[in-house]
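Possible race condition, two jobs.
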Amino acid sequence: MAPPAASQRYPSPSQPSGKSEVSDLKTQLRQLAGSRAPGVDDSKRDLYKKVISYMTIGIDVSSVFGEMVMCSATSDIVLKKMCYLYVGNYAKGNPDLSLLTINFLQRDCKDEDPMIRGLALRSLCSLRVPNLVEYLVGPLGSGLKDNNSYVRTIAVTGVLKLYHISPSTCIDADFPATLKSLMLHDSDAQVVANCLSALQEIWSLEASHSEEACREKESLLSKPVIYYFLNRIKEFNEWAQCLILELAVKYVPSDSNDIFDIMNLLEDRLQHANGAVVLATVKVFLQLTLSMTDVHQQVYERIKSPLLTLVSSGSPEQSYAILSHLHLLVVRAPFIFAADYKHFYCQYNEPSYVKKLKLEMLTAVANESNTYEIVTELCEYAANVDIAIARESIRAVGKIALQQYDVNAIVDRLLQFLEMEKDYVTAETLVLVKDLLRKYPQWSHDCISVVGGISSKNIQEPKAKAALIWMLGEYAQDMSDAPYVLENLIENWEEEHSAEVRLHLLTAAMKCFFKRAPETQKALGTALAAGIADFHQDVHDRALFYYRVLQYDVHVAERVVSPPKQAVSVFADTQSSEIKDRVFDEFNSLSVIYQKPSYMFTDKEHRGPFEFSDEVGNISITPEASSDIVPAQQYEANDKDLLLGIDEKDENKGVSNNNGSAYTAPSLESSSNITSQMQELAISGPATSATTPQSFGFDDLFGLGLSTAPAPTPSPPLLKLNARAALDPGAFQQKWRQLPISLTQECSVNPQGIAALTVPQSLIKHMQSHSIHCIASGGQSPNFKFFFFAQKESEPSNYLTECIINTSSAKAQIKVKADEQSTCQAFTTVFETALSKFVSLTFDFVSLCY
């Protein structure tokens, strides 16, 4: 432990103010080293406590190393412990000093007191100095043969430490064979458990280059060894029992009798008070009976009661862990837990994370016999003071409705939620009503009569507003004011920030036009014009697609946009069956808690190439990352290889409409085709002048009024950046620490760019194309963190930026530090402009049309 800086030290009664007090300690220890006067051990204790306290607060007391060793010649076990603690702290950093400890530690390893022998052996093995491994072999060999079980336990762990320091020394001394003999014949359970743990680690590491180690590792899974451990399992502590049960999971039984014998041996482990032991036992039962369908189902029945007991008897954290495993089992066999649904009712004093998991389980176990009781309970939660739980309970009711056949009572309950006049309740209910109508169109009359009374002005959440708009378009013929509500929403297009809502507005306007054309004509024209001018790529593409398909043939457009209603029988599952099976295979691990396989949160490829903490000073770029970093020049060349480069798209945007859009107006067909479409629509559009191209008659039909005026020349950027800027990571780190924060700001990120952030390199490449270079990046969804730098083109002025992007809120937190404060705002504008243009580089066929 490094001592604190001098400026951070403050004098105190227990802390020396200078070297003189450490020198006084050294003198006093030397005086007591050879003394045998009465009470000398008490004096040594006081001095030892001072030395340890100084060492703990970071003061260097290595100068008293020799005196501490000389004073260790005592039978007082407390003094021994403090001396070993001191020696272990300084020996590793001072190998030369550690030589002084070898003699007295070896001497203590032969002490009459087994506690001192064990402590000395543990301290000797903890020195971890490669040059001293030769001094460990003898004491370890004696420790493995010691009459006291505590010393043997320490010696077994010491063998593993020796292997990590010098594997060849450990193997040459034949310690693995000695450990195997102890494991199979020692009477002490802790010694046996330590031997098993050490041998598993040693043979796993040796198996990569030793066939003998492979055979020895496989021998641990032999029937005699497995039965030896299982017959003695009651003697072991909880940790050792879990270790043995993990070994038993890997055992391959020879026949069904073998399976039943093991299950009978472990039957009483299901009643253990420790949750880890119960879960490990459950895993053994489940894995052994996978190939026996009937027995596997009986195992579910048998393990149900112990798990439910653990849920109600432990802490909230243990309850959550057990519930997570129960949830996995409930999803696989809901009918077995259907009668126990009341165990999953929420208690008022439970944490929200436990309540949320219980709601998911209530959804999973619901069937025809218990739906009424479960839905009644869930409706009570809808009025919960915890808004998050209230939302989850409403979603749970909707999920149950979507998986049941008799939904009469459930639909009535959902419609009653709309009368609660709570914004979040109304929002969640609208989303669920939309899904219900997709699966049960026969309920449209009852639902629409209630939904029609809801004002769109009271709905603020994007998903809820999108659901309401969907119903306005889908059931426009049943809602008298549907065209006028849509028209009002379209007039406020610029105030709607959600791309999802704007997309639904386009589709709803189209559907309403096909059902009530005269009332929707103007609104559709306004929506198409606004959509084509929209900055969001998806909204623009959909508006352009609708425009062109209408121009091609109105009847075709109706068949595409508003086909006959078909009930949705099954909604897509959020998790594939393969992933669920992988999670089940990793039962009794973090995979069950995270609800994803271990490779998704442990492999390096899922952690990203950069590793850094919150401080930029801890940035470390891995070797893989250095090869991924592409110079700015190379990006310019790579842009030409893209299917549709960003620069090429910008160059092709030649004209704009009257709304200031940079997109070109679509080219139209001949006037004869337009005239036929107008006749089919039975709408008389305004006459066009002789000088106006005939193709614009279709535009006038919807009041688009597209202009052919050329787009204004964009103003030059306020700040020009150096495309070939370079900055060493060390220089970046130093500047970041020295410079003050010039500006902190929050901005929005393009939703399509958020979708592309699954690969952070896409943003790095995009920003580098704007002469803003990434020095490090990291994080995982929903939070990604980037450090960027840029330089002025004319002079070596640096701009350092920390950018934290939250994919859930589509917001970016920007922190800028600059050498030149006067141009910081100009750089921030350039940075935000570049970030706002970040979109996915995947295009559908509509995008390729222009």
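Job #2 (started ~2 s after job #1):
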Amino acid sequence: MAPPAQSHRSPSPSQPSGKGEVSDLKTQLRQLAGSRAPGTDDTKRDLFKKVISYMTIGIDVSSVFSEMVMCSATSDIVLKKMCYLYVGNYAKHNPDLALLTINFLQRDCKDEDPMIRGLALRSLCSLGVANLVEYLVGPLGNGLKDGNSYVRMVAAVGVLKLYHLSASTCLDADFPPLLKQLMLKDKDAQVVANCLTSLQEIWSLEASTSEEAARERETLLSKPVVYYFLNRMKEFSEWAQCIVLELVSKYVPMDTEEIFDIMNLLEDRLHHANGAVVLATIKVFLHMTLSMTDVHQQVYERIKAPLLTLVSSGSPEQSYAVLSHLHLLVMRAPYIFSSDYKHFYCQYNEPFYVKKLKLEMLTAVANESNTYEIVTELCEYVANVDIPMARESIRAVGKIALQQYDVNAIVDRLLQFLEMEKEHVTAETLVLVKDLLRKYPQWSHDCIAVVGNISSKNVQEPKAKAALIWMLGEYAQDMQDSPYILEGLVENWDEEDSAEVRLHLLTAVVKCFLRRAPETQKALGDALAAGVTDFHQDVHDRAFLYYRLLKYDVSVAERIVNPPKQAVSVFADTQSSEMKDRIFDEFNSLSVVYQKAQFLQPSYMFTDKEHRGPFAFSEELGNLSIGTEPSDAAVAAQRVEANDKDLLLGTSEKEEGHGYGSNGSAYSAPSYNASTTAGASQAHFDLVSIDQPSTVHPPVSFAIDDLLGLGMPSAPSSVPSTLQLNAKASIDANAFQQKWRQQPISLSQETSIDPRGVAGMMNPQALPQHMQGHSINCIASGGQAPKFKFFFFAQKEDGSSAYLVECIINSSSCKVQLKIKADEQATSQAFSELFQSALSKFGSA
């Protein structure tokens, strides 16, 4: 029987059909290597294009390296460029191959064509192979003395590349003095700029170890050098002008006359078409006039027009960068920009990040004269179909209201938002109304009349629900249905996921009880009973606090929980004035865009993944890792490139399947009956209805249960678990990942960690090594302060069950969230007790 005919597909012209095509390329290149026949260069071009195309899409074509080098013997500048591109790509990772390129690159550095000399020198310096630095010294020295400015320009940057490869070789060859001489005498402005850039970086790095380098760095800020650059300013390119202006901003003039001379010389740079040049010039003006108050204010007036022009022209990215700097200036001098508020109105076609920043600008420039117009514009945005934009607009209106400008009209507008019956609008408005009532209690009657018509069932967002509950408790005497609304919310306690809402609900019920006791008695009893068995530590503690306060003395409880309120005059600022000043010092940098000062967050950390700390999560895959220790107590941990989404869940995710009294939490509180507090006032027990029979929970060992010494049963000493673990258990990282993905969560708990243990986490290996001593192995770890995430593995001694643990530690609150998955569900609780026992000993030894 004849075999079936094979179908043939024509290969794509841009992709090889297999290794055979790369071999064909190699053969064709070898045949053309020594050929000088007419049309050879055209054929080479086609082959070179194919090689570069394959290299670009990630196909390994390093096997044709020697053939590409042999074919580089040509005067065709296009072939040279493609060859240099190919060589630069593979030489960094293949030092042995890079050695093959030295001869032809050195030969090209002596070519008659200055373009080829420059390209060859650039490629030679870009090989990045430390073993070949001795081959760079000669070509660089010749390049700095070359008659063509392009070659000198490349050589100036090449010296910096050589310094990063081998600083000693660069300094021994006396390249910095040559660069300085070239910088001060060369006629080509771009060569001067490249020399300045290289010298600044070299001398800055050497200044910490060399006094001579520190002195040389200071000479760059001397008056003759600065004036030399200023007089040649118009010759420089835009990039070079930014470098020079950054240098000038660090220069300290001798007197005010010199300041005005420099500012007059740079006046025309404010009208430059390039935004970077304008911002660099503004930085010079601002820094030089800091000590001259009147002149500094005039500078603000002078730079306003160029900045507003840049905002309205150019790309959205440029607009955002300029707006970030403008926002910084507005925060320092809002009155200067208050008349230009219309420039900050949002356009329909702007991206959201630009609109959001403009809203911040509008809130900053609002004053008595323009508040009405600004709020009217913001109210138009509230009806926007873009929900994030609508939310930000409501917040902007609220911020303006808290600045005490035309409060009457703004409060009316906010109350109208509540009548729009849009869930996101209602949620944001409730949060703002809460803040307004804290600052303007006199508006409570009007606000409560509208808020009272809102059904709590229509408010789902935690912050909004918490705000509504706060108003129900704070103004219980003015809201007729307040006790009954709170009672309904308490009945749905188990369905409420947000701890913030539960905390507010506890407080609101107590406040309502202190004012309308008969109507709130049942709700208070239910709330306290639910609170003392809540798995969240803060809710648990607050419920006990309120219970004991009421039990001790109701009048004392009222003075503590519901004291006379004073209007809030100023809300806390998100940034300190010191932080704003530090950011202002770093004007025209990423610090302004990210709103983070460099002394807290060095600029390279914005972009460099190598500087994100020992627990840094990779943004792409979540690189969870703990390095293996060589000691006997080493942690059996492996680097995991995790692609399992379950392993990478954020630390703020909701607990799956939580139950307040049955989840095995170490914070489950003991229930109460009349016999445990026989000596207490019977009236108080009836008051809060805590003496009802309830399910008995295991007692806990935390001192919080005897917070006020009210005779709670003392916690017995912990009983050692009978569960024994296999000290030699191990699992492959991939197997752990697959097992974690397949198994359901057996137990989800929250516990605490000793503060001394938190301090011990400064050493990333400390906790894994500690748990290893208890036969619990760390598989992976990640995160950074204040939240760290660990994955642990343990196995029952007889091998019948494996235990997988996700442990999230909050170092700021000393709280630990645990998720345990087990082959044997029945032993999950026993393992949890063993795990928590081991964890509680961390740092206490």
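The radius of gyration is 36 Å.
Logs attached separately.
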